[in-house]
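Class prep. Write one:
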Amino acid sequence: MRNSVLLFILGLSFIIVSCDSKRVYDEYKSVPNEWNKDSVISFKINPPDSIKPYNLFVDLRNTSAYKYSNIFLIVEMVFPHGKTIKDTLEYRMADPSGKFLGTGLMDVKENKLWYKEDVVFKEAGEYTVNIQHAMRENGKVNGVVDLEGITDVGFRIETPTSN
């Protein structure tokens, strides 16, 4: 009986993961205890198509050790032939009451944050996406050196939802 329940749960998990038909690329990288301001997390991407548009996301996992209601990120996309686009982005991580906005039932919350919409990868070859935090505390000039509470940083590419 116990093996049947375990097999059912395993099968159900496989079905749920397999149903993510919009996913083109999805990778996470773990952050050690703290995310240093000089630590750049990089993703190497070979887009499957140079004609179709894609939606791009930055994914973050955080714990209750994250003590801010927002996060500032510097996201840089390096094209195969050297062109670079760099954006400084701000995302809300918690509502005004302090409750984290991410999904998840336990201590770790997962955040799927919009980066770019309807991107066409026109250049053939490998793209690199670099992500680093740029957090500062209110009233302070110097940035937060070691950011606590972020456990994983990810990058995701999806096919847009058809209308």
Notes: The first helix runs from residue 2 to 18. The CA atoms of residues 70 and 92 lie 4 Å apart. The helical segments are 2-18. The chain has one domain: 22-158.
